């Protein structure tokens, strides 16, 4: 896994010199992503189960789906793609692993909007699957009318029996992890607690918080649960990046603390 900084926007400008055919920002960015130097950098960052060509195809699709990405600061965009590559996650709504979203005006040195990497709850579970200390991980919502109770303390317990109304209002969201040593850890949040996290996010008014609230709520409670579990370096970096993205702090300044190596398996049905 490479720690090299993303290619600078100046490199992109150099590639445009001598090009007599006017190209759209989308064409320019896609062309830059396909250059050997960029492919080499992505290949060095990606884990073995992914290729640079596949990542570029996925990113190209995201640019076409969200043209505003091509108008953002190029270094910011490349940095977000490299971060996504280092985590081995595929951006876009197809898998719900991660999202590339434009944010703000003038935050980048170029005066353009920045691109932020937002990690989805399925991305969290996918990262968790690559460990060995956690047997299963699941996240679920609780709706009005469900039988639901939980208690913390010396004898922690959680009971959830879903009702028949799948359209009832969501009241809680929870995540449960079964550990390799036989233990179980869970975390519960109310919708009010989740919405407080949403309110602090730069993406509260657009992106997955608007289109996929339930998935973002699950991701939020999983992220909180991971603070009590043995997690991998990748997982800890993902949590740090995600918390930075939810706040108003640039992801470039995210720090990563040391942690144990572990991984999670997906729970059945997740």
TrEMBL record:
GO biological process annotation, one example: DNA metabolic process
Top-rank lineage group of the source organism: Bacteria
Region spans: Disordered: 1-21
Sequence intervals crossing the membrane: none
GO molecular function terms attached to this record: DNA binding
UniProt-listed Pfam families: RecT
Protein's name according to its UniProt entry: Recombination and repair protein RecT
């Amino acid at each position: 896994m490479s720690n090299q900084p993303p290619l600078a926007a100046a490199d992109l400008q150099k590639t445009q010199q001598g090009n007599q055919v006017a190209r759209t920002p989308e064409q320019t960015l896609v062309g830059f992503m396909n250059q050997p130097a960029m492919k080499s950098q992505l290949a060095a960052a990606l884990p073995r189960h992914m290729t640079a060509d596949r990542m570029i195809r996925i990113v190209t699709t995201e640019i076409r789906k969200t043209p505003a990405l091509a108008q953002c600061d190029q270094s910011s965009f490349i940095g977000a793609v490299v971060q996504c590559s280092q985590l081995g996650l595929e951006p876009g709504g197809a898998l719900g692993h991660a999202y590339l979203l434009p944010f703000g005006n003038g935050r980048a040195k170029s005066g353009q909007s920045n691109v932020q990497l937002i990690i989805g709850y399925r991305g969290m579970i996918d990262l968790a699957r690559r460990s060995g200390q956690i047997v299963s991980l699941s996240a679920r919502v609780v709706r009005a009318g469900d039988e639901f109770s939980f208690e913390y303390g010396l004898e922690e317990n959680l009971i959830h029996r879903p009702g028949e109304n799948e359209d009832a209002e969501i009241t809680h969201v929870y995540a449960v992890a079964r550990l390799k040593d036989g233990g179980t850890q869970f975390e519960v949040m109310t919708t009010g607690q989740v919405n407080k996290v949403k309110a602090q996010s730069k993406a509260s008014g657009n992106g997955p918080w608007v289109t996929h609230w339930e998935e973002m709520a699950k991701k939020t409670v999983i992220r909180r649960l991971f603070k009590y579990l043995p997690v991998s370096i990748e997982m800890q970096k993902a949590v740090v990046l995600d918390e930075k993205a939810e706040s108003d702090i640039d992801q470039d300044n995210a720090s990563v603390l040391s942690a144990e190596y572990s991984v999670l398996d997906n729970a059945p049905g997740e």
